[in-house]
Amino acid sequence: MGSGGSPGGEVYDWYTRGVALLDRGNANAAVQLLAHAVAAEPGSRSLREALARAQFDAGQYGAARESFAWIVDHDPTDDYAQFGLGMAARRTGDLRAAVEHLALAVAMRPDLGHYGQALRGVRAALNRPVRGRP
Q1: Residue 1 has pLDDT above 50, yes or no
Q2: Is 40 helix (H, G, I), strand (E, B) or coil?
Q3: Cα–Cα distances in Å, from 9 out to 1, 15, 17, 32, 126?
Q4: pLDDT in tens, 31-66
Q5: DSSP codes, 58-98
Q6: Distance CA 65, CA 56 (A)
């Protein structure tokens, strides 16, 4: 760690090391590095996206949802952020929000089959009867 509890290096170093950790399956460590990078450059969409991916992979779905929502708030036409927001909403149990964001992602990129597959899965979950309810 560098001075003040920050990792050594510059923001770009934190980003590249964080993404490498994420790619190797170490999402929790990636979250730590990428959170430092976002704190240093809070307006960077690429840093926020990497952090959101790491948070999602680490099972921090509420945090991932907030990170993806920040990107969508700044660029509603970012199909990947809409997809990520929809997937994080699904994991937090908000199926209606998940459908909304996944449908937007599918509308923007109908060529990406995994977007449509995710949307169909959430719609099916939303339409399943709840036990104990007619």
Answers
A1: no
A2: helix
A3: 9, 10, 10, 14, 46
A4: 999 999 999 999 999 999 999 999 999 999 999 999
A5: TT-HHHHHHHHHHHHHH-TT-HHHHHHHHHHHHHTT-HHHH
A6: 8
Q: Which of these, 97, 52, 99, lies nearest to 74 by C-alpha position? A: 52
Both tokens of residue 21?
Answer: 């950790």
Alpha-carbon span 122 to 100, nearest angstrom = 10
- Each as own residue / partner, the long-range contacts of residues 42-48 (CB below 8 Å, 24 or more positions apart, any chain) are 45/71, 45/74, 45/75, 45/78, 46/15, 47/11, 47/15
Residue 123 in tokens: 């719609």
79 near 62, Cβ under 8 Å?
Answer: no
